[in-house]
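User: quick one, fold this
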Amino acid sequence: MVTVKVARHTSSCGTRPARLELVMPGLRISAISFLNTAPLMWDFEHGDAARSFEIEYTVPSACAAALAASQADIGIIPAFAYAEIPGLVILPSIAIASKDRVRSILLVSRKPIEEVQTVATDSSSRTSVALLQVLFAKYFGGSRQLTAHPPRLEAMLRRQDAALLIGDAALQVRAEPGYHTYDLAHEWHKQTGKPFVFAFWAVRLDALARLPEGVDLAEVFQRSRDHGLRPENIARIAEEWSPKLGMSRDDIRRYLTENIHYYLDRESHAGLQLFLQYSREVGLLSEVPDLRFLGPVAFGKTRK
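Assistant:
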């Protein structure tokens, strides 16, 4: 039996497990402390899946940095970061994606998007910044000046035409008179007709040798996702996160079940490949990486 010691921390999103430390070393997971990852982490936080792993919570860009520096073995990383880190494989069938409006990746602007020249960007997700750059370059008149900034909307808009907000900060944005709000997943879908994949689980190949015998990584993470998406568990997540974000339980439930698509299925795979291709075309990538998966991959019927 493995003893798990749980340390907790308090962040802007409330108190949640920050690190699960095992007496017997396990593979290190770097996870994201956003609402939309809560269903993916269900078995790790509410079941026994954490027994074979050490878990730390952070932001998407830091997950990618931890994988790149060999400080983590498994991470839920921005899709764009996969192209920048060698030696990774993707856990099949799991994603944080959207088939149209996502609500948690927003460009908030003082003028129409075609007139925007400067943008303050929350740089905690490289994929969201890259998506914005692709949309500007291919559909809205060319590149813009981007400046990294902490995700505080009023401060971001003091000197810039627009602000890019992601994750929980974007979910808390309320419509204000005189502002234009653009959902980037919707803009992508409107232009391409495809879903957009923001993140997925990736594993360092050199870590697989330390995988405990009998552990099927893909099955562990897929099962956790499936358990987290059960209606009764979505209700528990909504109850927990509602006071943290100032959102109603129904609003959180709709976000997790209608706006977020948790499957890296055939349509999402096509959208991911197109995004990486466009990233190369606009000069963000030198080449389009091969999407390598852990184990066999079969794209079944697309789930709603």
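User: anything notable?
Assistant: Residues 105-192 form a domain with the D-Maltodextrin-Binding Protein; domain 2 fold (CATH 3.40.190.10).
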